[in-house]
Amino acid sequence: MFQRIVLLAALGVLAGCPRTEPSETAPANAHTVQAVLETPPVDSSGDAADDPVIWVHPTDPLMSLVIGTDKDKGLNVYDLEGRLLQSLPDGRLNNVDLRDGFMLGGSAVTVVAASNRSNQRIAFYLLNPATRQLTSAGPSVPTGLGDPDGLCMYKSAVTGAYFVFVDDSGASAFQQWRLNDNGGQLTATRVREFDVGHPAEGCATDDELGFLYVAEEGGALWKYSAEPGGGSTRTEVDRVGGGHGLRADLEGVTIWYGPGGTGYLVLSNQGASNFAVYRREGANQFLGIFHIVADAANGIDGVSETDGIDVTSRPLGPKYPSGLLVVQDGVNLDPAEHQDFKYVSWQTIKGALGLP
Predict the structure, then answer these.
(1) For site-directed labelling of 80, which of 22, 86, 190, 219 has its Cα 20 to 30 A away?
(2) Residue 263 backbone dihedrals phi, psi, to 5 degrees
């Protein structure tokens, strides 16, 4: 929080001085892209918007959604034009994720999970594809954590089971919960707990390859087994000060799925207000860094101090032919407003970094 206050002061947001985006001061040879659009600012002031997740409509990609957290209020649901469709004032929901196809009461449903810091629980919702609305999936699950914040979901390719990972803000504890159909009611059972050594929030799972990626804020990006018997064994992907320009804090992580286990891992390099890209396969080779800079012609500011991110490789219409990246913007400028979410076409990222 102190780091963010210092940044806001430096940008003039606190003092009313002229402002510039950190991303606009990127090196001349940096890879840069621009956002296609941005959502309305969240209702809450300060460090409020946090984590998005993309839901792809099963039959009409243009009807897909983005669900984002206002961590001082609840959940927001946006369409692909960034319009706000639904707002759920359900508490201090920090991180959000979803998975399709969970069998509940004999029907395949889309489950949305969010960490609730108001009551130290995991909140569950069902997403109705016909109405594109969220409804409660029943009672939330107490975690026993002091302040649950980071969260991601996983569907095992080995067993078909569905899981939620959740961590503790300011601590190093990670929990894994298995989802259950208890007579048509969604419940969860804790199946694993491990220590990542230092505070971490951002996480993402590779459902096909069975990996869990955890962004240790001041340290490294780690790869674990996502299976409940995976224990605490891990492999380092990259680290702060490791030569690729990573700076604390490391935050959101997401995966762009390609065919045959290929694709890309994307990391929010929050301390440098940019994003690192790695190969999904093999040893996760580092591929480059990109910045999201301002589009003055269309009145969209650049992106800085990003927390949560999500990406899909599914084509979502002419604006997003190779998929969509959604990022939280920690300092929303020109005009200075509450935080929001930016939509970036993967096609532009692919072109900027020369990705295959």
Answers:
(1) 22
(2) 135, -155
Phi first, then psi, for residue 38 (nearest 5°) are -135, 155
User: 46 Cβ partners below 8 Å, 6+ apart?
Assistant: 72
Q: Where are the alpha helices (DSSP H) in the chain?
A: 2-11, 346-353
Query: What domain range is 122 assigned to?
Result: 30-353
Asked if 164 and 187 touch (Cβ cutoff 8 Å), the reply is: no
pLDDT in tens, 306-355: 999 999 999 999 999 999 999 999 999 988 999 999 999 999 999 999 99
Phi, psi of 57 (to 5 degrees): -65, 140
d(CA 254, CA 262): 14
Q: Is 166 inside any structural domain? A: yes
Residue 256 counted as domain residue:
yes
Q: Are 213 and 203 in contact (CB under 8 A)?
A: yes
Distance CA 192, CA 182 (A): 20
Nearest in space to 110 (alpha carbons), one of 60, 179, 167: 179
Q: Do the beta carbons of residue 87 and residue 106 sit within 8 Å?
A: no
Residue 22 is predicted with a pLDDT of 46
Spans in the chain with pLDDT lower than 50: 1-20, 22-24
pTM passes above 0.85:
yes
pLDDT in tens, 249-286: 999 999 999 999 999 999 999 999 999 999 999 999 99
Distance CA 15, CA 276 (A): 31
Q: What are phi and psi of 220, to 5 degrees?
A: -135, 165
Q: Which amino acid is at 281?
A: E
Give me the pLDDT at residue 172, please.
87
- Count up the domains in the chain and report the number: 1
- The predicted structure's pLDDT at residue 323: 98
| Cβ contact 41:340 at 8 Å | yes
Q: Is residue 199 part of a domain?
A: yes
Q: CATH code at 216? A: 2.120.10.30
Tell whether 6 is covered by a domain.
Answer: no
Strand partners, 111: 99, 126
The residues that bridge with 142 in the sheet, in sequence order, are 121
